[in-house]
Write a structure and sequence with these properties.
Blueprint lengths: L3 H19 L2 E7 L4 E6 L6 E6 L3 H4 L7 H17 L5 E4 L8 H11 L5
Parallel strand pairs: 1-4
Antiparallel strand pairs: 1-2, 2-3
Helix pairs in contact: 3-4
Subunit structure: Part of the 50S ribosomal subunit; part of the 5S rRNA/L5/L18/L25 subcomplex. Contacts the 5S and 23S rRNAs.
GO cellular component, one term: cytosolic large ribosomal subunit
Keywords: Ribonucleoprotein, Ribosomal protein, RNA-binding, rRNA-binding
Length: about 120
C-alpha cells in the first residue's frame, strides 16, 4: 500500500516523462501546508532558471503563508523572474497535486503575467 506522498509522486512521474519529451523548460510547483514554492527548470533539467516561494523576505510582509493569495503572488513573481532569465514558454508540472486551489491560482497568475503554457 502506497502512502499519500508516494501516490502523488507516482502521479507526477508520467507527467515528467511527457514534459521531458517536449523539450521545453518546466515550471514545477511544490505545496506544503504552510508555504508554496515554484521553480523553473531548464529544458535539459540540468539547472534551475528561476525560483519563487512564499518564504521570500520581500513577499512575506505582504502575504500570509500558503494561501491562495500567496499562490497568486508567487505565480506573478515566477513569471517575472523567468521572463527576465529569457524563458517565455514552459510546461506546467503540478507534481501530482490536484489542479485546484493554490496550484490553480499559481498557474493562472503565471499565465496572466505572460508565461506561456
Amino acid at each position: 500500500m502506497l502512502n499519500k506522498k508516494e501516490q502523488r509522486l507516482r502521479r507526477a512521474r508520467q507527467t515528467r516523462i511527457r514534459i521531458a519529451q517536449q523539450g521545453v523548460a518546466r515550471l514545477t510547483v511544490n505545496r506544503t501546508n504552510q508555504h508554496i514554492y515554484a521553480t523553473v527548470i531548464s529544458e535539459d533539467g540540468s539547472r534551475v532558471v528561476a525560483t519563487a516561494s512564499s518564504l521570500e523576505a520581500e513577499l512575506r510582509a505582504s502575504i500570509k503563508g500558503g494561501t491562495v493569495d500567496a499562490a497568486t503572488a508567487i505565480g506573478k513573481r515566477i513569471a517575472e523572474k523567468a521572463k527576465a532569465a529569457g524563458v517565455e514558454k514552459v510546461a506546467f508540472d503540478r507534481a501530482g497535486f490536484a489542479y485546484h486551489g493554490r496550484v490553480k491560482a499559481l498557474a493562472e497568475a503565471a499565465r496572466e503575467a505572460g508565461l506561456q503554457f
